[in-house]
Structure formats: structure tokens, C-alpha cells
Write a structure and sequence with these properties.
This protein has 23 helices and 23 strands. The chain is α+β, with helices and mostly antiparallel strands and 702 residues long.
């Protein structure tokens, strides 16, 4: 009897060990997926007290980077959560809505969906990123059932990490071993912070200027996925059944188009739903979006764009829906703690990024619960003036206030108090000056090395043995690393070349964006500055809008209509250049109209003729036409024009101050340059060899 009991206990113990091992391995093989906040967004969702969330944002990574719920709370008192995931399938969006209602059914009022998922499919990995972290319930079971079409084998494989990821041995990373100590990033409430700026990444000239004019005639057939439409239908009907308000939106993206807008708008109309599309007028510029600076790439907003968009969306929500201002309510006291974390993680980091001056940067860094590590390299004193010395004195950086030619310097500020400073006079030692101490509560080590020009010309800052600032990346002047004691990580590192200047060129809220919002930018700004680039960017968007509306007004192939409209502005200079063949389909009416405009030589264009002309306002400056095999060109006031037509070749050139603008296509190439803006505002080609010109239209677009 006793032996049987022992055997039973052995069997039970064995199975318990096996079960514990399986549970452990399940968790171990589950990928972290920290990119795009997938891990923190979904895990943080379950840290929310039940029946508190009133507004839910769902969708792909575009949503993650566009809406920051903590700023909705700070500005409007809205308790919202952003449950977007990377390339989130519409199936996952629907079931996250169900999951949110399961846990917040008494509080949930409004659901906001980004329409991206209606037009794109997702690979299996993105279903995992969206659903793996969802807690086991009937909701998750039905989501997996739908994705796998009910196959028991596929459901097990998909739903159990050990089965789905058992072959991940070669892909394991440090994060797989660290995740058991992770705390959910609840301060962001799902938002994914991005600091990168599109123009900084690819250059201002390479950033795309959006055309915010909608083409209502664009064909939308077949662009939306049937599977996505199925779950969209379920989402709308679920909201209707539960009495939830539903908002359909589309954030600005280069992957969006008039065709997609029309397709989604048609679906929205069929349900009686308003569709907020920020890619086109009238919503394109309602919150002051500047694509080159408010995006991290062509599709995702950065922090600066997200704060603008979030503020607009918050105002829209409180104006149109019955959302509670939860600020000060005892039930929502937890949000104040979250806001403190958000301030430490996001707001302070954004302020540091946008600080232009050394004084401003040090004051921001020292005001929070941070450890600020400073290391000089080379000559770091030449540009330091009284304003900086006053700041050093205020912060008790006494030795930094004495830094002189080629001195070596290090400093450490912890929670606003200077804990260490060191300085070595130029030439006093041939070796770098070093310091070893701790950051935060003293449990994390830090090492600093600094050297002036004559004793090594280097700098390095290490935290826990890892180089946050390497000798390779250190620059002349003061190198600074800011470590958040609250978060236990570096939140910013930078350099001020204090040999040349105590300021740096940055994009940020403290200069560029506030100026834009205040309407303080004008043409007095140098075009090479950030402010000047923003002015130019906005004007380029305006030019594109005007050009598109003009095309809609006069017709795509109406050269006469284009010329008449652009000739109304005395600041416009219009250049024409023929390439290959341009006379074939010119009618007697076309020729009469050209002659009426004063373009006599164009009215006489014959087969194989080369042709160039210049029009300033309504004045014909010059025209040149040549017979077949003869090239015409001219160089006037920094502009070079060339036309090679017929058997002589196929070239159209309109080179303005060394840059080519002609489309260089068959027919009549047109370039419009605005003298006031000092910029080309329109380029196009009219293929009068194969396409007849339309007659002028005077009826404006409705």
C-alpha cells in the first residue's frame, strides 16, 4: 500500500515537473518583439485596472506611432489605450476590441480604427505579434480558430509558443534571457516613441511632398481585402451592438492614395460612418503637419508629429463623444503615476532632444532624477561665454567654470547635485584623466575618460562596463550622457562643440515647431536653416496643391489652359522646350490660340521642328524655332534652354542655375518658375504627337 502511494506520488511529481518545464519553455521560446513596442503594448494592456479604459485605438504600427494616450490624458483627461501592433491584421484588430470590451465593458465608449489594415494582408509572424501576448480566454481561442480555419493541429501549433517556436535556438538573443525581469512599459499606454526625423534621415530634398488634393475619379475597385472587410464588418456591428462609438481614420502615409481613399470612403458610406482621412484636403493641414519633419519615414509619425496629431484627435473626441475627464478622480489616480513615468521616459527625452543650447540642455538634464555624465575631448573652452559660466555656477559645476585652453574635464551630476568633478590643465599630464563611480542608487558603475588635445584627445563614458560613448564616436567639446535613475537606462547622449559654439542645430519643439504653430516663420529665414526649410516645404505643398487643382480645372491635356492660368501671375516665368516630335496633332484652333497668346513661332511648329521659348507673366520674352536636324538653345540669366527634335535627336533641357527641370519627354515640355519664391512650381509635358490638346475650360472645379 505504501509502495503504491510512493509510485503514485512519483508519477504525479514527474508530470508536475514536465508541466512546469513546458510552461517555462513556453515562456522562454516566446519572442520578445520589443520593436514597435509589440511586447510592451500588449503586456502593458493587462496592467490596466479593469473597467477604466474609455477610448481604444486599434490598428498597425502607424497607430502606435501616431497617438500618445498619456498626452490625451494630460490635455483632455481622456483614459485611452493604444493597442496597435506591427502590421496588425484586421482579424487581430477585431479580437483586441473584443478583449478590451471583455475587461473594460463598463467603461469603454469609443473605438478608433486606422484604415491601413483594410488594404494590406499580413504574414503569419504579424498575427503572432498581435495575438501571442493576448491572455488565454474565449476571445483568444476564437481568434486563433479563425486564423487557422479551425484546424486542431494548426491551433495547437499557433497557440502554444513551444510548438510554434521550438526551432528558435539559433535566433535566441540576450532579450530572451532578460524578459523574465521585464516590467511592462505602462507609462506609454501602448504608444511607440520615435525621435527620428525624416528630413534628417534622407535629406530635405528627398522627403516627399504630399499632394493633398483628392482625385475623386480614381478607380478604387479591388483594392481592399475581402478578409479585412469581413472583420471590419464584425467590428462595426460589435460596436453597434454594444453601444460603442466608432471612428474610422487614416493617418498620413506615402502608401496611401486617392484610389484607396475612394475605396474606404465607399465602405464607410455604406455603414453611415464618417471617414477622417488626413492625407487629403480638408484634413491634410488641420493640425499643422509637416511631413519632412513630423515623420520618421514616409509612413510613421515621430514624437513631434504624434503630439500635434494627438492634440487634434483629443479635441475631436471630446467635442463629438461623451468621454469623461478623469483627471482628479480617485478611481484614476493610477494615471498620475503613469504620467510621472511618461514624463521621465518621453517628455524629458523629447526636451533634451530639442534643446539647442548647452545651458538649456544642462538645466533640463539636471532638473530630473538623472545622472548626468560629462567628458571633454580636445579643445572645449573657446566658445564658452558668460551665459554658460552663469549656468555652471548655478549647477555648482565649479571646475567646469574654470576650464581653459585644451584642459581635460569630467563631471557627474546625480539628481541635481554635483557628486564628482575633475580637471587637468593643458599639458599637465600626457595621459587621459579618468574617473570611476556609480550612477543612480549606486548599484550601477560608470567610468569616464577624457583628454585634451595634448594628453590623448579622446573621451569615453561607460555604464556597467558598456561604452555608451565610445572613443570612436566622441567629438570635440563636451560630450554628455544622461542616465535616468527612475528608468535605469540612458535617455539621451549628445555633444556640444564648445570650441566653436555652445549651441547645436536640432529639430524640436522648442524652436522649429513652436515657431510654426505661432505663425512666426517667413521668408527672412535663410533657406539652409531648419526654419527656412519648413517655409519652403509648406510652400512646395501649396504649389503642388495649386498645380493639381489647375489640372482638375482645365483638364490634363490642356496646354493652352495651363499657359493662360500661369501667365496671370507676373512672378511666373514659363519655359517651353520641344523634344522629338510635337506638331502631329496640333489643330488649326491650337495654332490660332498660340498666336493669340503671342507665341507666333509655336503656332507655326512643323514636323521635326526644334523649339524653345520664355514667357514672363503675360510677356513673350523670346521664341526660337528651327527646322529638322537643327538644335536650338540659349543661355539667359542663369537659365539654359535646349531643344533637339525630329531626326536631330530627342532632348529637352530647362536647366535653371545648374539644375535640370525639364521632364525631357516627347512633346512640349513646360517648366514654371516663380521668381518671388525662387523655385520651380510646376513641370509637365504635353505629348502633342499622340494626344490632342483639350480646348480651354473656364468653369472652375466644384
Amino acid at each position: 500500500m505504501k509502495e503504491g502511494r510512493k509510485n503514485f506520488l512519483r508519477v504525479v511529481s514527474f508530470f508536475m515537473v514536465v508541466i512546469l518545464m513546458l510552461v517555462g519553455l513556453n515562456g522562454f521560446f516566446q519572442p520578445v518583439w520589443a520593436k514597435w513596442n509589440n511586447y510592451y503594448t500588449t503586456h502593458g494592456f493587462y496592467e490596466e485596472p479593469e473597467n477604466t479604459i474609455e477610448a481604444l485605438f486599434v490598428g498597425a504600427s502607424i497607430v502606435l506611432s501616431s497617438i500618445t494616450p498619456m498626452e490625451l490624458y494630460d490635455d483632455y483627461g481622456i483614459c485611452a489605450y493604444n493597442i496597435g501592433t506591427e502590421q496588425q491584421p484586421m482579424l487581430a484588430s477585431y479580437y483586441w476590441l473584443e478583449e478590451a470590451y471583455r475587461l473594460h465593458g463598463d467603461s469603454l465608449k469609443t473605438v478608433i480604427l486606422d484604415a491601413s489594415g483594410l488594404r494590406s494582408g499580413s504574414k503569419e509572424g504579424f498575427y503572432h505579434k498581435a495575438l501571442d501576448s493576448m491572455k488565454f480566454s474565449d476571445v483568444k481561442l476564437r481568434a486563433i480558430h479563425d486564423y487557422t480555419d479551425g484546424s486542431i493541429y494548426d491551433m495547437i501549433t499557433f497557440g502554444i509558443p513551444l510548438a510554434a517556436y521550438h526551432d528558435r535556438w539559433s535566433d535566441l538573443e540576450v532579450s530572451d534571457f532578460e524578459k523574465y525581469s521585464y516590467d511592462a512599459d505602462i507609462g506609454t499606454r501602448g504608444y511607440y516613441y520615435i525621435e527620428n526625423i525624416y528630413a534628417d534621415k534622407v535629406g530635405f530634398e528627398e522627403t516627399m511632398v504630399f499632394n493633398p488634393v483628392l482625385d475623386k475619379t480614381a478607380n478604387e475597385e479591388g483594392l481592399l481585402l475581402e478578409d479585412s472587410l469581413y472583420y471590419f464588418d464584425k467590428m462595426v456591428k460589435f460596436c453597434e451592438e454594444k453601444g460603442l462609438d466608432f471612428v474610422l481614420m487614416k493617418t498620413i502615409s506615402k502608401k496611401w492614395s486617392s484610389e484607396l481613399h475612394n475605396a474606404v470612403a465607399e465602405v464607410a458610406d455604406s455603414y453611415g460612418i464618417e471617414f477622417l482621412d488626413f492625407n487629403f484636403d480638408p484634413l491634410y493641414d488641420v493640425y499643422g503637419h509637416i511631413h519632412a519633419f513630423d515623420n520618421r519615414d514616409g509612413n510613421h509619425l515621430n514624437y513631434y508629429g504624434a503630439t500635434k496629431f494627438t492634440k487634434w484627435m483629443g479635441n475631436y473626441l471630446v467635442q463629438n463623444f461623451d468621454l469623461t475627464d478623469v483627471r482628479g478622480l480617485e478611481k484614476y489616480a493610477f494615471m498620475e503615476k503613469q504620467y510621472d513615468e511618461y514624463s521621465a521616459r518621453i517628455l524629458q527625452q523629447a526636451k533634451l532632444l530639442s534643446a539647442q543650447s548647452l545651458v538649456e540642455y544642462l538645466e533640463i538634464a539636471a532638473s530630473g532624477n538623472n545622472t548626468v555624465l560629462i567628458a571633454s575631448k580636445g579643445e572645449a573652452s573657446a566658445a564658452i561665454e558668460q551665459r554658460e559660466l552663469d549656468c555652471f555656477s548655478k549647477l555648482k559645476l565649479d571646475k567646469l567654470s574654470t576650464i581653459a585652453y585644451r584642459d581635460s574635464y569630467y563631471g557627474v551630476i546625480n539628481n541635481g547635485k554635483v557628486v564628482a568633478e575633475g580637471i587637468s590643465l593643458n599639458g599637465a599630464t600626457k595621459e587621459p584623466v579618468t574617473y570611476r563611480g556609480t550612477v543612480g542608487d549606486g548599484s550601477v558603475s560608470c567610468d569616464i575618460k577624457c583628454a585634451g588635445t595634448n594628453n590623448g584627445n579622446t573621451a569615453e563614458i561607460k555604464i556597467n562596463g558598456e561604452a555608451v560613448l565610445s572613443e570612436k564616436n566622441a567629438k570635440r567639446g563636451l560630450n554628455i550622457v544622461v542616465y535616468s535613475n527612475d528608468l535605469g537606462c540612458v535617455i539621451n547622449s549628445t555633444n556640444f562643440d564648445t570650441f566653436q559654439s555652445c549651441n547645436r542645430s536640432v529639430y524640436g519643439l522648442n524652436n522649429t515647431y513652436l515657431l510654426v504653430e505661432d505663425g512666426a516663420l517667413d521668408k527672412t529665414y535663410d533657406p539652409i536653416t531648419i526654419e527656412g526649410q519648413i517655409v519652403e516645404y509648406n510652400e512646395r505643398v501649396s504649389d503642388l496643391r495649386v498645380a493639381t487643382l489647375l489640372e482638375q480645372k482645365v483638364g490634363k491635356n490642356n496646354l493652352l489652359g495651363f499657359l493662360e492660368e500661369y501667365m496671370k501671375d507676373e512672378n511666373n516665368v514659363i519655359y517651353l522646350s520641344v523634344c522629338r516630335e510635337a506638331s502631329t496633332l496640333l489643330t488649326d484652333y491650337d495654332r490660332q490660340q498660340f498666336e493669340a497668346l503671342g507665341l507666333v513661332q509655336l503656332s507655326k511648329l512643323k514636323e521635326g521642328n526644334s523649339y524653345i521659348s520664355c514667357i514672363r507673366g503675360d510677356e513673350i520674352v523670346f521664341e526660337k524655332r528651327a527646322k529638322n536636324k537643327i538644335v536650338v538653345n540659349t543661355d539667359i540669366e542663369g537659365v539654359y534652354l535646349k531643344s533637339v527634335a525630329g531626326t536631330a535627336g530627342k532632348i529637352s533641357s530647362v536647366e535653371i542655375f545648374g539644375k535640370e527641370f525639364s521632364p525631357n519627354k516627347r512633346g512640349i515640355n513646360v517648366v514654371v518658375y516663380n521668381q518671388e519664391r525662387q523655385r520651380v512650381i510646376d513641370t509637365r509635358c504635353f505629348d502633342t504627337h499622340t494626344t490632342p490638346l483639350l480646348q480651354p475650360q473656364t468653369t472652375p472645379v466644384q
